[in-house]
Every structure is written in structure tokens, then in C-alpha cells.
Design brief:
Layout lengths: L2 E3 L5 E3 H12 L14 H15 L7 H11 L4 H5 L4 H23 L4 E4 L3 E2 L5 E2 L2 E7 L4 E8 L2 E2 L5 H19 L1
Antiparallel strand pairs: 1-2, 3-6, 4-5, 5-8, 6-7
Length: 178
């Protein structure tokens, strides 16, 4: 190797010097992400995801809404940047359910409720089954649908396997009620 020796005896090669220059000139990857989670883009993505959950629509709808909105509203800066497809929509649903799971369980404790799910193909053999709970909320004076969880079925999507998946997920929530 050809290079210079430093005072402490370390060999400095041109490759190392180039690497150090590159490190100084390179911005961290986090600088490429939007840092304002309360911005209009994030708000639009969360509102549309909430709409999907409230109306029990398949998460696959999110794959098609961005291009449709861009055709419908070509002058909108927000819609031009909108890119919330199924994977991001799923992540938003999961993030929302993680923070409010206990609250949803407490809201339906001691009252009649119904659950609904639908299969939304995610990747390969996996299918997501978001669980939406609908109940009457006396504190709000209305019927409310809330996302409870988004379990993943990695088996074939038979009625028996879907039941087992939902039953296991609901059993996990039971200790919150007792």
C-alpha cells in the first residue's frame, strides 16, 4: 500500500482520505425526511387512513387514491406530494392502534359491540386483518367505529384460520378488561 504514516504510526491511504471527505460532504439520511409530523401532508395521510378504517374499506384502496386525487386536483401542492399507499397506510393504522388499544378496549367494556375485519393482502403470503370495533359511546352520544388491532395471517385464508387469528388477538385484549 502506498500512503503516509501519521504521528502515531497509522498508515493513511488515499482511499481513507477520500472516504473521510465523503463523510463530511454527505448529509444524514434523516435530512431527507419531513420532520414536521403535524404538516399538511401527514394530516392528509392520517385523515384518509382514518376514513378507510371508519368506513371499513380495504387498505388496498389507498394504492389507487393518490393517482386519482392528482387527476382530480392537479393544482394542489399537497395532493401532488401525496404518496400514501398500502404499506404506509398499514403503518399509520398500526401506529394509531398501538397508542389507543387500551382505550378502545375500555370504551367497549360492559357494552354491546360488534367487530368487523377484511383481508388486505400485504406482501407475499401475508394478509392483514384489521379489526374494527363498533359500539355506542354514551360519552359521545353516538355510535363509533375504532381500529383495535391489525393482526397478520401467515397461513392460508380459510375461515378456520381467520377465526383462530381473530380469536387469539381478542384473547390478548381480554386482560385489559378484567
Amino acid at each position: 500500500m502506498v500512503g503516509k504514516m501519521t504521528v502515531d504510526g497509522t498508515l493513511v491511504v488515499k482511499k481513507h482520505q477520500d472516504f473521510l471527505k465523503m463523510q463530511v460532504a454527505t448529509k444524514p439520511i434523516t435530512s431527507r425526511f419531513q420532520s414536521d409530523i403535524t404538516g399538511p401532508m401527514t394530516k392528509a395521510e392520517v385523515l384518509f387512513t382514518t376514513f378507510l378504517v371508519e368506513h371499513n374499506l380495504p387498505l388496498a384502496v389507498s394504492d389507487h387514491v393518490g393517482p386519482l386525487l392528482k387527476v382530480m386536483c392537479p393544482d394542489s401542492k399537497i395532493i401532488h406530494k401525496y404518496s400514501c399507499k398500502r404499506i404506509k397506510t398499514t403503518a399509520i393504522v398500526e401506529a394509531c392502534t398501538e397508542s389507543s388499544e387500551e382505550e378502545v378496549v375500555m370504551n367497549v367494556s360492559g357494552t354491546a359491540f360488534s367487530i368487523v375485519t377484511y383481508g388486505s393482502h400485504h406482501a407475499g403470503e401475508e394478509t392483514l386483518y384489521p379489526i374494527v370495533v363498533t359500539s355506542y359511546r354514551p360519552d359521545l352520544g353516538k355510535i363509533v367505529s375504532e381500529a383495535l388491532a391489525v393482526p397478520v395471517c401467515k397461513m392460508s385464508n380459510t375461515g378456520e384460520n381467520i377465526f383462530k387469528l381473530l380469536n387469539e388477538e381478542l384473547k390478548k385484549k381480554r386482560p385489559l378488561v378484567e
